[in-house]
Amino acid sequence: MTEFAEVNALDPTAGRSLHDLVAGNVGEDSQQAIEYCGFFLHGYAYGQEADEEWAEGDIYVQADGHVGVVEWLSSEDYDDVLELVDDLNALLLEWENHIEHGSIDDLVDFAGPKQTTDPEKAEGSDHYVHVSERGVGADA
Fold first, then answer.
1. d(CA 41, CA 71)
2. φ, ψ for residue 117 (rounded to 5)?
3. 71-126 tens-digit pLDDT
4. How buried is 70 (Cβ within 10 angstroms: 0-12 exposed, 13-18 middle, 19+ buried)?
5. What torsion do the CA atoms of 26, 35, 74, 85 make, to the nearest 10 degrees?
6. Can you tell me whether residue 36 is helix, strand or coil?
7. Cα separations (Å) of 126 from 40, 115, 131?
8. Other CB atoms within 10 Å distance of the CB of residue 10
9. How far is 86 from 100, CA to CA, in rounded Å?
């Protein structure tokens, strides 16, 4: 059984934390996400291929198991990490509401298609996207 090190996303002494995102310090390795309650937060780093809506210090939130972007946040909008946590908790409640009480269409609209390693399940589906067992974008 593989053991995974758990990093407290609120711990400012951790390698990467929500404090880094609020400070706009996404670092050189912006592909390393910060996990918070089932969301993965990715920072936009200078030098990434830019989209008109992206700016340095922006954060995008992705729901675990989905390929879409739930929300774009800007580090400039937060004076402290608790404000970010408040917004993330609101997104978490919305996500849980879609899972428990909504339709699959509502969930996909909110978080993007769900990832599956079953190519047949994904074929022709708006609800699922096929990924290798190593994840999205991994070479087969």
1. 10
2. -90, 0
3. 988 888 999 989 999 999 999 999 999 999 999 999 999 999 999 999 999 999 99
4. buried
5. -130
6. strand
7. 22, 11, 14
8. 14
9. 21
